[in-house]
Amino acid sequence: MLLLWSASGVIFIFAFVFAVVRFSWMYMLISAIASIPVTAYFFGAENAWQYVGYTPLVFFTLTVVLWFLQKRKMKLIAT
Question: Transmembrane segments in this chain: where (predicted)?
Fold first, then answer.
């Protein structure tokens, strides 16, 4: 269990940093999916730590925003 937690945490952090640097929606999606096991643990908390469980929603929202921005950029380049 600890291996899954640490592996998904490392993948989540590296994919997030790479997504921000490269402005890539694909890596942001990978980051959102990889963050689910870590945030599922915190979602069951009885205190303020349960709000960490909503982190994948933020990453999925950023994925959609990056996808629309990249799509608009490609459309501007094509014209």
Answer: 12-36, 48-69
